[in-house]
Design goal:
The complex is a heterodimer of chains A (324) and B (328). Chain A has one domain. Helices cover 75% and strands 0% of the residues of chain A. By secondary structure, chain A is mostly helical. Chain A is globular and about 55 Å long. In chain B, strands 1-2 form a two-stranded antiparallel ribbon. Chain B has 328 residues and is mainly α. In chain B, helix 11 crosses helix 12 and helix 12 packs antiparallel against helix 13. Chain B has one domain: ABC transporter involved in vitamin B12 uptake, BtuC, CATH 1.10.3470. Chain B is built from 13 helices and 2 strands, in the order H-H-H-H-H-H-E-E-H-H-H-H-H-H-H. The longest helix of chain B has 45 residues. The chains are: A mainly alpha (324), B mainly alpha (328).
């Protein structure tokens, strides 16, 4: 019961932080409107998927350093396949790329289980491999994306019986994010596999002794991570219209948001909601600093400091909780 | 193989070789290094000469020092991902300040942020018990931000790599790179600290079983604080050497060395979970990775294929090494 309350308290705290930041934004920039919120969400999209990928793996007690590289591979694959192809061709590309992500993630998991090398080292190696693959597919940013796919993240969703003032605040990007995450996460959380993922993250030995197949669960966790990374890669291609073979800053951001979101790096604790809110908060901080006309270089310092301080505070609270 | 002990005759050869290797974990690494050099010689006859060796050693040294930071932190079950930032900061500061204030003050100024970042890492990991991965990523981020702000204040001054650093980084005296003048004492110091001092033993103890170490009276935070400050200082020194070698200070100077430094320590047999490993293996690991990079460059493959092979080989070596050392 107590861990449950504490977990929810963390998410609630993040929500309060988000609301405070939103109010600050409005105070700084009274014109901040629905359009700006929409572009914030579009910017958040690839970050949020990277964070989701990392979250699943971290809950299973691992860590995936190859998230950003997987996103690069899937992004360039999608861009290269859709380049010059017809609009309906994209209907085949999307499932193919998602399956590709699933396979790449499963490959990570398989290598970890099979070689018995620690996950940091395996995913560090596959980071190089995936980077190489991305460069072989496209050696410079290029490719294309189908128009209807690009339209998927721009604009808002018209909902009947709701005034325009409300729907304006529900950008399509947010809807896409929520649907994609929910479709994978909610069934997973309720399934035996989801429970097994939490179990092996909590204690591999205990899980093994209660009949959980540790190897299979681990591979599945990494595969789901790969699936989320593929969604991230697709969203990158959608929002820019091209594929970029050089991985973006998503690895660092994903690890940071996972920890800020209350998922313990040791595994077995936390959910998906916390990290997603955390990544939105981090992006909003960046927006606020830009609106305040802070030197963009100083923004990096402030982001880093926030991360360090929050993590220290979290560790300190956890320590006091243990001692009591 | 000179295992000719009388009692070993009954054991089959394969098992005997395996036992020999697991007793001396450095032997397979040396064999791998020799194999790589032989492969290089076959692919490009005549390439392996005195100049090539000096050059390889020159490029392996900054990597070996950074990998030393990883080795020491990994022994306690940690990792230091701020080393590339610290090295870049030291390199950039020395090449902007040494012109005005002279080499001594320049180096002192360059190592100051290293100490500060090390202190922050040590406090975070040792006292607040933050996961080292996160803590060092965060301080690295702060460091790079500070460096970007600093860069704007010195645009007018411009950058110039001090002469003594380029001498140290690129110079070769009588066939030996000058960088060895710095590296041999540094390596000796690390080896001495790890193998012969109480502090070194505490590092292994904390990494092997932190609870046991604490119950036997080790003050955890003091060990960790000293470790991370030391690691950061080493990274700063590596940065000074590297800028002398590359001669083009930039804000992403040492970034390409970060992941290879982790890989070098891992290939050298240091466990990422702590308690096992040593610096000799890491030096061999750094040499192996440097020779491997040369080999992949010589094969004239596209950049993508080179990265794929690099990643696969690191994984393969680590996996094979674990099998050899652990299967008894």
């Amino acid at each position: 019961m107590i861990p449950l309350i504490r977990r929810n308290a963390w998410v609630a705290g993040l929500c309060v932080l988000f609301i405070l930041l939103a109010i600050t934004t409005k105070l700084i920039q009274p014109d901040y409107g629905a359009g700006d919120f929409g572009s914030l969400m579009r910017a958040v999209l690839p970050y949020a998927f990277a964070v989701a990928a990392q979250t699943v793996v971290v809950i299973a007690g691992g860590i995936d350093l190859s998230v950003a590289a997987m996103m690069a591979v899937t992004s360039v694959t999608a861009a290269a396949m859709m380049n010059g192809a017809s609009e309906s061709h994209a209907l085949f590309v999307v499932p193919f790329v998602l399956a590709l992500g699933l396979c790449l993630g499963a490959l990570n998991g398989f290598l970890i289980v099979w070689t018995r090398v620690p996950d940091i080292v395996v995913t560090l190696s596959t980071l190089f491999v995936f980077q190489g693959v991305a460069l072989l597919i496209l050696d410079a940013p290029g490719g294309g994306a189908a128009e209807w796919l690009k339209g998927l993240v721009v604009g808002t969703v018209p909902i009947p019986f709701l005034p325009e003032g409300v729907t304006a605040w529900i950008p399509k990007a947010l809807v896409v994010l929520v649907i994609c995450l929910a479709v994978v996460w909610i069934p997973l959380r309720r399934s035996q596999l989801g429970l097994s993922i939490y179990a092996i993250g909590s204690s591999e030995l205990a899980a093994f002794r209660s009949g959980v197949s540790v190897a299979r669960t681990k591979i599945a966790a990494y595969a789901i991570g790969g699936l989320f990374a593929a969604m991230g890669g697709l969203s990158l291609t959608l929002s820019t219209g091209i594929g970029a073979p050089i991985p973006g800053p998503y690895l660092l951001a994903s690890v940071a948001a996972v920890v800020l979101g209350g998922v313990a790096l040791g595994g077995g604790k936390g959910g998906l909601l916390g990290p997603i809110i955390a990544v939105i908060v981090l992006r909003l901080v960046r927006t606020d600093l830009t609106l305040l006309a802070v030197d963009p270089n100083a923004t990096t310092i402030i982001e880093g400091l926030i991360m360090v301080i929050v993590v220290m505070l979290g560790a300190f609270l956890a320590m006091r909780g243990r001692n009591r | 193989m000179s295992v000719t002990a009388a009692g070993a005759e009954a054991v089959p050869l394969g098992k005997r070789i395996r036992r020999f290797m697991s007793d001396r974990p450095l032997v397979p690494l040396v064999i791998l290094l020799v194999l790589l050099v032989v492969a290089l010689q076959i692919l490009r006859p005549g390439i392996v000469n005195e100049r090539w060796i000096a050059n390889t050693v020159k490029f392996a040294i900054p990597l070996a020092i950074l990998a030393g930071c990883q080795t020491m932190t990994m022994l306690t079950g940690g990792i230091d991902l701020s080393v590339s930032t610290v090295a870049t900061m030291a390199a950039f500061i020395v090449s902007t300040q040494a012109v005005e204030h002279g080499p001594v003050i320049g180096v002192a100024l360059a190592l100051l942020p290293a100490v500060l970042i090390g202190l922050a890492n040590g406090i975070g990991v040792g006292i607040f018990r933050v996961h080292p991965l996160i803590m060092t990523l965060g301080t690295g981020l702060v460091g790079i931000g500070c460096l970007q702000v600093y860069q704007r204040t010195v645009i007018a001054t411009g950058t110039k790599v001090p002469a003594f650093l380029s001498w140290l980084g690129t110079g070769v005296t009588g066939g030996f790179p000058n960088a060895l003048l710095l590296f041999i004492p540094v390596a000796a110091l690390i080896l001495f600290v790890l193998n012969r001092t109480g502090f070194g033993r505490l590092l292994y103890a904390v990494g092997d079983n932190e609870r046991a170490a604490r119950l036997s009276g080790v003050v955890y935070w003091k060990v960790i604080l000293a470790l991370y400050v030391g690691s950061s200082l080493l990274a700063g020194v590596a940065g000074l050497l590297y800028v002398g070698l590359i001669k083009a200070p930039s804000l992403s100077l040492a970034d390409p060395l970060l992941l290879p430094s982790v890989a070098a320590a891992v290939v050298g047999g240091t466990s990422i979970f702590g308690g096992r490993g040593g610096y000799t293996g890491t030096i061999l690991g750094a040499l192996i990775l440097t020779v491997l990079t040369t080999l992949l460059t010589i094969l004239q493959m596209p950049e993508g294929a080179r990265r794929i092979l690099f990643g696969l080989i690191v994984l393969l070596v680590t996996a094979a090494y674990l099998r050899i050392v652990e299967d008894r």
